[in-house]
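User: structure tokens for this one?
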Amino acid sequence: MAKKILLVEPGFPIPPKSKHHKNFLPIGLLKIGTYLRDHGHEIRLVRGFPESLYETKELENFNPQEIWVTSLFTYWAKYVRDAVGYYKRLFPGAKVKVGGIYASLFSPEEVKRFTGCDEVHQGVIPEVEEYSKSHFPAYDLVKNANPHPIDYQILHTSRGCERRCPFCGTWRIEPEFIAKKSIKNEIKEKKIVIYDNNFLMNPYVELILGELIELKKNKRIVWVESQSGFDGRILLKKPYLAKMIKEAGFRDPRIAWDGKYAQFEFIKKQIDLLIQAGYRSKEIFVFMLFNWDISFEEMEKKRIKCWEWQVQIADCRYRPLNQIDEEYNPGIIGQTSADYYIHEQGGWTDALIKQFRRNVRRQNICVRQGLPFYSKSFEHKVFDKKITRRVRNLATIEKKVNYLNSMGVDYWIPDKTQ
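Assistant:
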């Protein structure tokens, strides 16, 4: 029987300018939207809460029988609870379901108790995933509310991951690795964002890369991005994949360095493969997990090694998978483990967490701009452009530093542990 179903993305703390960014688009709800609509149900999507009395009245007139609420990171669980409470009050007769990442990592009983929902769905919805292979997600649900057109497409070539990294929830939510043999018939846009958790693990990855290369040659696509990066262990076993990745139009390739500093030669080989394939070093990103078992001092050595290689760092602050709240604020000095998770066993403190994040940000700016130092004054254009040009034209770092000191310009040099 056809129903009226309201799809809800809670009011997560996503900046308005990032609401339609590829990292935050509620692709799961858009897939569900297509599936439900094509099966005769009437649907609406709301992101957060109604912003006006008019929007509230519109929803009240819709009067859904069911409300499906998605969830993201476990530490954003309170936003899911707020959404459930709000829409239950607005529609007391509707059944409220919660799904998504948080809902899949906790037991259904815990999710029901914390959010007050009526039903919990864990993992992906198999029939929706199967349907999405041949039916485009309902991008119109967000395009209509977006002043800037969404000109990219999100897709999966596989679900799950056979790695069992202890800090990752993917293999817990999607324990079975399921791979597609082809994606060419799913592609509608010229910009492709692949959401696989381990793209290279797909046993048909060469066929898929071949499809993308052909589409790129025929100008059907302009670029591809792998959100979770590339498994460097597979890349080293099949080095020819690096060239295929480049030819397929993948931009900003990412690899992971989750282990100790002693692995640097192993990581360097992966970077070299990507450079040999045609990438510039500053286009390459290295994922780094911090606030974890590796100390601040060792993470700094890893950071400086990336500076030596002139690659950028995508830093990832560790949070436990069972954490349902956090109040981390980069602008506040002296926060404690009562505010957010601090991995004290690894010697981390609030000050060290924020120092490492600051060092990474400044270093990435230097890599992108080809500068041997960072200056807050230069970033905020406090000094005249003539001074900036003068510094750039000086031949050695020693001359640059002497000049900066003489002009009273602040600076930070990335190859120093601080």
